Amino acid sequence: xxxxxxxxxxxxxxxxxxxxxxxxxFVRYARRHKPNPQxxxxxxxxxxxxxxxxxxxxxxxxxxxxxxxxxxLAAVPQTVVRERWRGQSRPExxxxxxxRRTNAGMAIYGRLDPIAGQRDSVRxxxxxxxxxxxxxxxxxxxxxxxxxxxxxxxxxxxxxRQNYRYPSD
Length: 169
Fold this sequence. Notes:
Blueprint: H1 2-32, E1 36-42, E2 46-47, H2 55-67, E3 74-75, H3 78-84, H4 91-101, E4 104-115, E5 118-130, E6 136-145, H5 152-163
Parallel strand pairs: 1-3, 1-4, 2-4
Antiparallel strand pairs: 4-5, 5-6
Helix pairs in contact: 2-5
């Protein structure tokens, strides 16, 4: 009888120790993989202007580079984005999914559309979405001259910097 009680006590102690170790491991994992609210995942832009298709990735690369120039903001490198990007029928949802998979706290999705009757400018739309809640924090909708397309990533990054509210923690 005594040996069976000893085994039962040992087994109970082992179960408790394994439970505590599992809980500690989970807490460490959760802390390490907590989304960074100052890290942005910039998805490739959707381009609906046929002659501008090469800008799909160039805009994302330029915006990523511009966001990284003024700390504390940073952006997930586009090499990582290319590896993890899974375009879906709803690319804004895919952008949020990308942010979550890269531990970025913010997702950026943008698109360029033609403007009826205007061949010298495009409509630029961009949203910044909080990855944890799915809440749109910043929305940009403006006309942009084609002649100044090179300056668009810098202007968009500036808009993000001006409108982004830093977390209080």
